[in-house]
Amino acid sequence: MMEKLLRRRTSMLWFALIGFSLWQGAIVAAELYPQWDRASDFVQAPGMVIFGMAMLRLAQLSHSIKKPDVASVLNDELTQLLRFKAFYFSYLVLGGTVGLLVGLSPFIEFRPEIILRILLVTAVIVPLASFVWLDHKAGAET
Amino acid sequence: MTARNPASALGNHMKALRAQRKLTQADLADAVGVTRKTVNTVENQVFIPSTLLALKFAQALGVNVDELFYLEDMDTPGD
Questions:
Q1: Distance of CA A17 to the CA centre of its chain
Q2: pTM of the full predicted structure?
Q3: CATH of domain B10-71
Q4: In chain B, where are the structural domains located?
Q5: How far is B34 from chain A (nearest CA, A)?
Q6: Phi, psi (deg, nearest 5) at residue B10
Q7: Substitution target from B15, B27, B30, B37 for chain A, most A beta carbons within 10 A
Q8: A78 in contact with B at a CB cutoff of 8 Å?
């Protein structure tokens, strides 16, 4: 049962990651390359739906876990450590992104909206991707 | 003098003790209340458990904590 719940959580995180990347990635791409504007619309909608569904299923999963012992297994020491590592790595990447944007600002004129969107995409995608990767790596080392 | 990686300094006999008791990683994980990945990473010395979790592992395997975990630069009990 625990393995099934863990697999469900991992697959929902994958869907959230893919959906958000498609949705926000398409918006950022259209901002940077206006000729992709039309193509971006076709990618944004499915991305938004996939992300929304994944978030809904994750919320359902956490609501369906009533037993405290099951909830504590899903949030055990290793999971807490992986989450900490994922957030720490994301903090460094976010700092690097800010540094890169500051460095590029004398050469490229960024609108405030695109800067905020790039930071949002980084802040959501990097922790999700790092957690999924670290979690996969933890299970693979048998 | 070379600096030791603290993550590799804590050895354990978990795999051998688990095999002796014919337990799978999932069985031990259920007994302790963690995921199978936690058991896997402790066995492979990727993850160092807290004192509380180390005591729970020792209890589940029916040994003292120092029979289960040891410092790799020290003599291990029974070796």
A1: 4
A2: 0.81
A3: 1.10.260.40
A4: 10-71
A5: 5
A6: -105, 110
A7: B37
A8: yes
Q: Which residue has the tokens 């402790």?
A: B42
Helix axes B25-32, B51-61, angle to 10 degrees: 120
Q: Which two tokens stand for residue B65?
A: 């904590």
The tokens for B4 are 């030791």
pLDDT digits (tens, 9 = 90+) for B31-61: 999 999 999 999 998 899 999 999 999 999 9
Query: What stretches in chain A show pLDDT beneath 70?
Result: 140-142
The reply to whether residue A76 touches residue B40, judged by beta carbons under 8 angstroms, is no
This complex has an ipTM of 0.74
Residues 6+ apart with CB under 8 A from B17: B61, B63, B68
Find which of A3, A77, A83 to mutate to test the B interface (most B CBs within 10 Å of its CB): A77
CA distances from A68 to A62, A74, A76, B54, B59 (A): 11, 10, 12, 21, 21
Amino acid identity of A140? A
How big is chain B, counted in residues?
Answer: 79
